[in-house]
Amino acid sequence: MTVTLKYFGSIVDITQKKEESFFAEEPILPVSVLKNKLETAYEELKRTNYSIAVNQAMSSLDTKLKDQDVIAFLPPFAGG
Q1: 31: three-class secondary structure by DSSP
Q2: What is the enclosing helix (H) or strand (E) of 30?
Q3: Distance (Å, rounded) from C-alpha 26 to C-alpha 21?
Q4: Does the pLDDT value for residue 80 go beyond 70?
Q5: What does the pLDDT look like over 22-44, one tens digit per residue?
Q6: Which of 40, 46, 64, 74 is 20 to 30 Å from 14 at the Cα level?
Q7: What would you measure as the largest C-alpha separation in the chain, in angstroms?
């Protein structure tokens, strides 16, 4: 399974990229597992508050990812 990861705001500063592909051998992967893998790869994410959206809809950690999903990592939004 391959998914696209998109990063926004301060998360771009942590990952040093706006987008990347992520390959997993599992055919279906919970968001929680992806989150743990990314926090291992990018240690500073553990200390960052962010939300995760799957295919432009806010998701929970139980959401199951499928091949070709697009996952966005969103920092907190400020009002204005």
Answers
A1: helix
A2: strand 29-30
A3: 15
A4: no
A5: 999 988 899 999 999 999 999 99
A6: 64
A7: 42
